[in-house]
Protein 1
Amino acid sequence: MATKLTCFNYPGYEATADAYGISAAVRTPPGSSIIAISGQTGSNLGEKFGTLEEQIVGAFKNADKALCAAVPELNSKEIWQCVFTMTFYLVGQLSSEVGMLLDSVAKSYLGDHRPAGTAVQVQALAYPDCFIEVQVQAAVKLD
């Protein structure tokens, strides 16, 4: 069973929360184990990086693999409900088109769940052709 997280927004933050599918703050329950994954890119372990869309999809797939490896007792849908924060590192400008694409892929994993989130624009990432890196943390309390 997935951990029950409590999400919070303060007055005036609702528009941002709705626009980006995030919460201003998330409280994890007492006794939870924190799962932190390394930043995940959209590569297939040595293969070339594709388009930005392919990289976003791949980065989420790799994040999913990492989370599921850390908590094999939960399925993919359950573990993403335990995610309490996400950080996206993006090379270049975060255009509305990129934001919509990122939001669409994130919602395919998160559904209506809204963890805290941050997008950071960077000049470059570790790999020259890499445009995005995704880092997430989850709180898991297994029965």
Note: Strands lie at 6-8, 25-27, 33-36, 83-91, 116-122, 132-140.
Protein 2
Amino acid sequence: MELYLAALLALMLVVIVIRIWLKRKSIYTRKGIIDPMKVSIKDIDRMEDGKEFEEYLYRLFLALGYEDAYKTVSSRDFGADLVFTDRDGERNVIQAKRYAESNPVGLSAVQEIYTSMRYYGASKSTVIASSRYTEACEILASCNGVRLIDRSELIDMIDLFKSSQHTQVMDLIEEEPELILDMDEEDSGKAKKIRLSSRKRD
């Protein structure tokens, strides 16, 4: 009887592991390549590390038609994970940050991607994160013209891509970075943040 129960328990455990594995692998094609059409924000949250997120973005960019997009060598990426040429013919560098939703991306992301531009001969830089950014990170990005794509915009990208609105996804990726200005108000003497952006939102 004990042997029977042990065998039954082992079989149940194997079935559970296989179900988890199949669910986890559902974002992959039969060839083991990530299919961007199958990826949701929940899949990104479940990714084991940043490498899988980088691979997703790479496959997404290829599917959008950025034919020259390539991933950098991880051991010597000099701060960039992905390089591509936009529709205006300008080279862009991307840093991917797969963080937990509650864990904001800090200053180092902007510092690293901005300094990688010269190495890759890029004129634009972007950080794409599965979370949000610290205020200091946003200010530094504004001062240096670094585009920040946060979780909500990443979700927009995913949804637009899945509904075959590829041009809108590319518009979102290629938007100009936000500009944050501190302006003094004479009435209160307090600094007020003004966010200026070329974003075309409805």
Note: Residues 24 and 46 are 8 Å apart (CA to CA).
